[in-house]
User: Fold this.
Amino acid sequence: MPYPKGPQMGGCGELESKTQAKSSAPLRQGIAWLLALLCLLMTPLAMARTLLVVGDSISAGYGLADGQGWVRLLEQRLQQQKSDYQVVNASISGDTTAGGLARLPPLLAEHRPDVVAIELGGNDGLRGQPLAQFQRNLTALVQQAKQSGARVLLLGMRLPPNYGPRYTDGFAQVYQDVAKAEGVALVPFLLEGVGGDPAFMQPDGIHPRANAQQRLLDNAWPELQRVLRD
Assistant:
């Protein structure tokens, strides 16, 4: 005697699948929204560009409270302008061009900067570094940065007159010669209007006070802004 037809097992399986599909739909939709949100949050990070500052005590903010140095003021200005640049300040007090040569390759590998601002040489001059060696080191720094694909800005320094006109003039000329030979932007003297003025210099006569930092930024800004736009 044939059994009466009733619900088939396959039908129960289909019903269960449909129920699971309906219950998982909100979950899939939630995951999709979460992924979209993550993409939106990560997009600015992916698009952010990096400005690497490699300098000595002038850019490290020697003798200043945290946040008072010109590099920090630069970072604030870029943030106010809604710039997509992040600033990495890799400046160390007492550094020289030789020290910068040792530090620069790992910095380039780690940060992959779009722009490198090199503020080195002051300590070379104060120590009486032979100008030929100073020029070789500075040239090598610029070339390393360029080979990484970064654009370069040189921030020049000058020496006190007690080093004698021959050495001080030759020292300042090195920045001009390197910038011209390598085709990079140059700020001839970052401390223009500050150096030598007791109102803006710390008692050592070498490091700028906090009230000079805005002027340092203003000295660097025209050339820096052009390099950032390129």
In short: The chain is about 55% helix and 10% strand. The chain has two domains: 9-47, 48-229. The beta strands are 49-55, 85-89, 115-119, 151-155, 185-187.
